[in-house]
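For the sake of clarity, the format in which proteins appear in this thesis is described at this point. The record quoted next illustrates the convention:

___
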Amino acid sequence: MRLLAISDLHIDHAVNLRAVEAMPHCPDDWLIVAGDIGHTPERIEQAFRLLTPRFRQLVWVPGNHDLWSVPKDGVRPRGVHLYKELVALARAYGVLTPEDPYATFRHASGPLLIVPLFLLYDYTFRPDSVPLSQVVAWADARKCVCSDEYFLHPDPFPSRIAWCEARCRATLARLSDLPPGVPTVLINHYPLKQRLAVLPRIPRFTPWCGTTQTEDWHIRFSARAVIYGHLHIRQSRWVDGVPFQEVSLGNPRQWDQDLGVDGYLNEVILAPPRYPVAS
């Protein structure tokens, strides 16, 4: 039984949808989908319908694209209401979400608590020299403003910053209730550390890539792995002895279609267990 991960399927693109339709059957394995399935609940349901029969368990966290409300798609729920609709949709297919009890994955090296997170961003991934009030203008000077500014609505919160703060506060309280030392796999659409939000082609996009509130969560909550997407730059980095994996598929030009989507199913890399596994 393997723990696999992928993100940023973006099945609004016909090429990506065909690739997901051709995904292999792995009935013994769990699959983490770390956000950005598509722009509408219909697309997200389509992915759940395709993927749930192929894996023992699906785990999903929302990406920013999943939470878009695009005017051309007609009247749509927004903000928290949309998120709750997507959670209900996931549960209807048996998919684990950030709102569900954390599940245990029985890995050969020891049990792992699977921790899906939904935290958003608060523009703190920006240079110290850029005031918060100027961050969008600073990014716009290099044509790097995220479309979330137009399509990701925080209702009923007054801002995405406020929604991020509420999500971080509630999630931190929940994680703090875990027994000390329980090994976890932390899953978020955005990187949990600012140093990982490096985008050479669009360097001023980083304010939309996470929050500094999570900088030490991999240590505080005994992570043996951290999974994320969003950047469309696949990589594995070890920080403080913990592997951080960016597992995105990405837009059609960002992956090799000759490999098929199964070539982008990442087996989760784990740090060694802190204690020997009981025989």
